[in-house]
Structures are given as structure tokens and as C-alpha cells.
Amino acid sequence: MNLIKKILVPVDFSDYSKDALKYAVQFAKQFDAKLYIIYVIEPVIYPADFSMGQVAIPSLENDIKNRAEEEMDSLIKSYVDPSLETERIIKTGKPFVEIIETARDLDADIIIMATHGHTGVEHLLFGSTAEKVVRKAPCPVLTLRKPIKGFQFSAQNGQV
């Protein structure tokens, strides 16, 4: 009996998240699991004037979403073995909230994600999406940072 059938992999298109995706691909192969790759767009809000408050700009958000879809397709083509069942998910909101809600909605068995390893003031100011996901996720979370022990990757299709 396979305990891991659904793997959620948050990406932000950084090298860190690409390495986590490569790792998740190998993990998915081991368990014959489906990969759900999620990218979360943080809403773009511009201060307009004091009478209207903050205003979101829909056309800019559409451009960002289209660009995210292109990046996601490219990422999947470059790093995911075509034999694996894969679903791409693009959401808008706070990354850690959307990741947690998606894991819950999918009934994900595990989340595999990169941690950028921010420390000091940078960590205090920005916090860590990975840390918030670990604390609140409805399933186990495997966080990865460089170097990733155990796998050596080539550039194409996440092959070991």
C-alpha cells in the first residue's frame, strides 16, 4: 500500500524551488504519486489616494497570471518526467495560506518545498513561507535547502 499518492510542490521559480521540484519528481517516481505544482501570485496593490484606499489593478494581475502560466509550463517541461501525472495550480493570495488551503483541499499526503534559508534581519522582516507552512500544514512537510543530500541531478527532466 502506497501511503504517498499526492505530492504538493510549491514553486516560486527560484533555483531553490527548482531543486525542490527535481527532488519531488524523484520522490513521486518512488511512490508512483501525482505531483501538484503550485505557484502563488501575491496580489499587486497600489496606494491610490487616501479617499479610495488601496486599489488592485486587474490588468496587471492578468499579465502576471499569464506570465506565471508560461513559466509553470516551461518548468514542468524542463524538470518533470512526462510519465508522471502532474497538475499545475496557480492561485492568488498569501503564499503560505494558499499552500496550506490547497494541501487541505487536495488531501495532499506530503508537501515538498524549498526553504531559502533567510537568517537574521531578513528572516525577521519577511518571515519564512516554509516555516509557516510547516507549522500549519494538514500533512507532513519536507523542506529542502542546498545542498540536497541524496540526489544528483542533470538539467533535463530531473533525471538522476
Automatic annotation (TrEMBL):
> Is Cytoplasm one of the keywords UniProt gives this record?
yes
Q: Which UniProt keywords apply?
A: Cytoplasm
Where on the tree of life does the source sit, at the highest rank? Bacteria
Q: Which residues form the UspA domain?
A: 4-145
The record's Gene Ontology cellular component field reads: cytoplasm
- Please name the Pfam families in this protein's record: Usp
**Locations listed in the record:** Cytoplasm
Q: Which InterPro entries match?
A: Rossmann-like_a/b/a_fold, Universal_stress_UspA, UspA
Family membership: Belongs to the universal stress protein A family.
Know the name of this protein?
Universal stress protein
